[in-house]
Structure formats: C-alpha cells, structure tokens
Amino acid sequence: MAEVTLHQVTKTFGDTVALDHVSLTIADHSFVVLLGPTGAGKTTTLRMISGLDKPDSGDVRFDGTSVNRLMPAQRNVAMVFQQYSLYPHLSVRENLEFPLKSPLLRMAADEIAKTVATVAETLQITHKLDNKATELSGGEMQRVSIGRALVRKPNIYLMDEPLSSLDAKLRADLRIELKRIQAHLGATLLYVTHDQIEAMTMATHVGVLDAGRLVQFGPPREIYENPISIYAASRLGQPRINILPADVFGGAPSGASFIGMRPEQIVQGQGEEGQVTRVERLGDQTRLYLLIKGHDLVTVTEAHTTLKNGDVVKIQPKHAFYFDQEGNRVN
Amino acid sequence: MSFSVTEPSKRQKWFAGIVVVCYTLITLMPLVWIITTGFKSSPDSIAYPPKVVFTPTVEGYVNLFTTQTRMSPGVITEPRDHLPWYEQIVRKKGNTIVGPSRFSERFFNSVIIGFGSTFFAIVLGTTAAYAFSRFRVPLKDDLLFFILSTRMMPPIAVAIPIFLMFRNLGLNDTHAGMILLYTTVNLSLAVWLINGFIDEIPIEYEEAALIDGYTRFQAFYKVVLPQAATGIASTAIFCLIFAWNEYAFAVLLTSGTAQTAPPFIPTIIGVAGQDWPAVAAGATLFLLPVMVFTIILRRHLLRGITFGAVRK
Predict the structure, then answer these.
(1) Is B208 touching A (CB cutoff 8 A)?
(2) CA B84, B89, B94, B99: dihedral to nearest 10 degrees?
(3) CATH 3.40.50.300 given to domain A4-234
(4) How many whole angstroms separate alpha carbon A161 and alpha carbon A171?
C-alpha cells in the first residue's frame, strides 16, 4: 500500500473543466470517500490515479514519486468499475484469476488458487466460481468485481460507486463487509459515491468535490458538523439541511445571508411560528414539513407525534450555521 | 427488440409454417438439382421430362477429375476385370483415361486464394477497425467513408486499371495477386462490419484489463477479440463467400497457374460434348468448403448476422 498524492491536478475535456487544481493526500491505510453530484470530477480523479487518463497539468504521486508517465499496469492499482465490470467471456474463477495471471504479477498457479479461494470465501461466491460471469445476479457480479480487485495487493484500491446498482439490503451488507475488509487488510482505498450513508459509515476521510474543485476534506464527522459552505453542508445529512434567509429567525451574525439548520439544530416549543404542511411517519422517526414565513423547512420530530396538517409549531435554531451571499460559512 | 403483443393463433402458426416450408423448398430446389445431376448419367441429365428417379452413377465425377480420349474399336484387348473401377466406367463409353484433369488444381487454387484473402481481410480489418473504434484517428469519419466508397461501384468497374497494374507488376495469374485483389475488395466490408462490433464492446473491459496489469495489445487480444469473435466470424463468412464465388476478375486475371474453380467449371462443358453431370459434380464439390466453413461458424453467424443487436 502507498500514500497517494494529487498535486495541483487539472484536467479538461474540451471546454469542460473536470478537475481544477485539485490537491489531495490519501494517507496510507486510509479510506477516503469522494462525494459530489454527477460531473463534480469524482470519477476523473480515480482515472487520474489509475492512469487511464493523464492530467493536463499537475502531478500524481505514489509515496512521493510521480507516476505521471507510468501506464496503468505499471502503477499497480486495482479498480472496481461502476458497471460492465466482469469479463463476460470468462468464468467467475477466470475473472478473479485474470489480474493474478497478468505479466505484472505472474503469480504461481498454486498461489493463484489459494488467493482466489480466500477472496471467494470472504465475498461468499465460492459456489459460483465455475459459473459464467454473465450468469450471475447483479449483486453477485458486483461482489466478483470487488473480488477481482481484492485478490491483489496494489498500491491503492479505487472504487467507482461499486454499490450503486445494488438493492438496499445487499448494499448495507456489502458496506459493512467492505469496511471490514479494508480495516483487516489495512488497505488504502479511494471510494467514489454520492450515497452519504456510504460516506459516513465507511470513510476515514471525506473529500467534497464541486465542479472539479476539492472544496472540503476531512473526517466525515467534521464535514457534517463543520461544513465550510452550503454546498458541503448539503452533501451530508438526511433529511437535507434547511437553507433559509438569515433574517427569518433574527440573531444572525453580520454578513450572513443564509441560515442552515439540520433537524437536530431546530428546537421546537419557542420562536417563530410555522404551519405543518405534511407529516411523514417513517417508523423510527417522523418528518415534519413546515411552512415558515413563506419558506419550506423539513425537520424531525418524535415518532409518535400527534401533530397533523395545519397545526402550528414554534421553532428556533440552535447552534445553526450561517452562510454569506456566496454560500460560504461565516460563523 | 420488438415483439408482437399477442401470441399468434394456431392457424397463424400453421400458415407461417407453410410459408417457411415453401420458401425452404424453393431455395433448396436448385441445390438438389445440382447435386442429383452430378450423379446422373449423361442421357439422364438432359432427359425430358426430368428424371426424378434414376440409376445413380459416379460417371460425372470420373469425367470431372480425368482427361479422356476416344479409343478405336479394335484396340480393347485387355480383360476388363483388371482395370480400376474408374477406368471401367470410362471404357463403357469407349474412352480411356489418359491422365488427371485440372479440376483438383483449380479447386486447390480456390481454397488457397479464398481462405488466404479471407485471412488477410480479417486480420487487417480487425486491427484497422480496432484503431478506428478506440483511438483518436484524425479525419476518422472521412476515412471510414472513403473506405466504404470503394464499395459504391461494382469492383469489376475498375477491372481494366487493375488488369494493367497487375500486368506491369507481374501479378497476372499469380496466387499472390488474386489474394491481394480479393483482400482489397473485402477489406472495406471487414473494416465496417468489425468496427460496428467493436464499438458495441464497452471500453470499460479494456480499461479493467489495463488496470489488471495488461498492456494494450494484451487487452485487445485477451478481452476484445474473444468478445468480437461473433462479429469476426460472420464477417469472415461474408468475405469467404465473395472471394470463393468471384468470377469476373478470375476470368480476366487468371488463366493457368492461379485459375480458380469458378472460371474453370464452365470449361468442362466443352471438353466432350455437353457433359452436364461433370459440371454439376464440379459445382457440388465447389459448394462444399463454404458450406463446411459456414456450418463450423454457424453458432457465431446466427448471433452475428443481427449485427450485434442482441448484445447488452
């Protein structure tokens, strides 16, 4: 495993700037998750590190050495793709053996068999080893695909939304499994997703990308509790953070144009009056949709609340975030 | 993919079945005619009305493979039983075999030129198509259009320039010349068809192979080729059928050494009267290689002929 560094990496495709002077350090043994909507540059970052694309300017370094000139094979990285992951003309076993038989590794046959068996067991696909890759269910395919990365001991594992095509149950299982494997192997892992639960549960560090720029980088807790902008704050939290004009509640610091409140930053009982427009009972919690001075707001209340549409609730912010006109944090 | 919403009724299925059977019979008719004629005697082959039931003989095949001459009536002295079976057949007509005919040579020429040109068209076509599909080729669309434009007229339209070029280069009536010519004609088809098939293969597979530690050529060889096999196989069949059946250039550019079977078969007619069984025998044997080749690749052809529509 290695420490991977991006230094001032810029990449453009035609007129589109995919990455704009991104600097990022993925420490050895860390699990870094990149968050951002489609087009933010998450996948491009992975492709820069893997060598499938080369930066227009800037440096990709493994343990301090630039790898810009190296082919993907020479970089010794493993990657899990979002889709089209398995070689369709090969069996599951052959898929898992494929990287081990490469000219890069040339592993001995008995060692290949052992490695494949271990990984297959970890991912619970042993009984499918002799199936054709195309005869698997979506979940099995994705597990094999992750397995094809795990058979190796690369400098870094790169994963591009590996769980996005799976159903919720499998996703939850594999999430735990992946985190366990990473901790067990002590692997360096860069993981791309737009699923905040994956980010919060697995990451040691989260990087937030916005239109090709890395806007915040830190432990997930820190990004959740101390976002630097409306954009970063909106990446995490369910339901989403509420952004209202700062003057709705008063008490805003100077320069603040917006107030951002997560449900836990909203206290019920005192303050401004809001009208209940919708009550969503999710079982473990109940979501309350409020209309306050003409602005929509979502908060969470106790599961067995008796509130209903049209009721009036008083709320006020507690330790809320304030943002300026550009959306940057001011407090 | 489109399909009808309702299950066809029994009557519709019967009707469809009958149509298919009729069509099959109509297409098979000439084939059956050729194959049976090859086993008829000369009088039977021109009998009117045509004989459906006849005594089969291999006379046509013997005539096809041998050169014969007429014997004067008194010459036959040896007892017939010592003669090989083919000589006996010939003797019945009062002929004797003086040597083999040129058919096997011509047939062998067809095999070398047909399969040789198919091989080169496929190798060059696959590599060119891969480059067009995967690399940033300058003027790619124009080049592809230019390649296709070579098929916008019948190849024979350029027969005279080709004839002159071949004469100057000493390629007239050579195997190399014919392989070169058929490869050239087939190449545009091969590039276009295979390009379509390779375009269908998501690039992610190769990228995965690159990351798994393989070079680009290894990725092409181990990941792209196996997946394009269907398309390549069906393209190979198209190429072989063209090269195998090509008549006009063969007549024009070959006469001896490199003559293929198509221009040779008609010359059989003139050897000793109109020997239709020998012609039919030649045609039957001529059909075989393409048939065998197609049957071997049939598994691929059925999927390939839909031009990749079934994939995904």
Answers:
(1) yes
(2) -60
(3) yes
(4) 11
For residues A138-164, give the mean pLDDT. 89
Which band of pLDDT confidence, cut at 50, 70 and 90, is reported for residue B71? confident
B212 contacts chain A (CB < 8 A) = yes
Full DSSP string of B21-56: HHHHHHHHHHHHHHHHHHTS-HHHHT-SSPPSS---
Contacts of residue B226 in chain A, CB cutoff 8 Å? 89
Give the other-Cβ count within 10 Å of B10's Cβ.
Answer: 8
Contact list, B312 vs chain A (CB under 8 Å) = none
Kindly determine whether residue A103 and residue B214, on different chains, have CB atoms separated by under 8 Å: yes
What confidence tier does B25 reach under pLDDT thresholds 50, 70, 90? very high
Q: Which of A79, A89, A105 sits opposite B211 (nearest CB)?
A: A79
Digit-coded pLDDT (tens) for A186-226 = 889 999 988 888 888 899 999 999 989 999 999 999 999 99
Q: Which of A83, A85, A87, A105 to mutate to test the interface with B (most CBs of B within 10 A)?
A: A87
Cα B14 → chain centroid: 35
Q: How many pairs of residues across A and B have Cβ atoms under 8 Å apart?
A: 59
Closest Cα of chain B to A238: distance in Å? 33
pLDDT of B4: 61
Q: Domain extents for chain A?
A: 4-234, 239-323
Q: Do A98 and B202 touch (CB under 8 A)?
A: no
**Given an 8 Å threshold on Cβ–Cβ distance, is B212 in contact with A103?**
no
Residue among B228, B56, B42 at smallest CA distance from B126? B228
- pLDDT greater than 70 at residue B79: no
* Whether B208 and A105 lie within 8 Å, measured CB to CB: no
pLDDT tens readout for residues A80-112: 988 767 898 899 999 999 999 988 888 888 999
Which of A51, A73, A77 lies at the smallest CB-CB distance from B215? A73
Structural domains in chain B, CATH included, are 11-101 (no CATH), 104-304 (1.10.3720.10)
Q: How many other β-carbons are positioned within 10 Å of the β-carbon of residue B181?
A: 22
How far out from the chain centre does Cα A161 lie? 8
Check CB contact of B210 with chain A, cutoff 8 Å: yes
Q: How many other C-beta atoms can be found within 10 angstroms of the C-beta atom of residue A54?
A: 13
Distance of alpha carbon A105 from the chain centroid: 30
pLDDT tier at B308, thresholds 50, 70, 90: very low
Interval A222-272: pLDDT, tens: 999 999 999 999 988 888 899 999 888 877 788 889 999 999 999 888 888
What pLDDT band is residue B1 in, cutting at 50, 70 and 90? very low
Looking at the domain A239-323, which fold is it? OB fold (Dihydrolipoamide Acetyltransferase, E2P) (2.40.50)
Q: Which residue of B has its CA nearest to A50?
A: B211
Residue B81 touches partner A, C-beta closer than 8 Å: no
Q: What is the pLDDT of residue B51?
A: 84
Same fold, A4-234 and A239-323: no
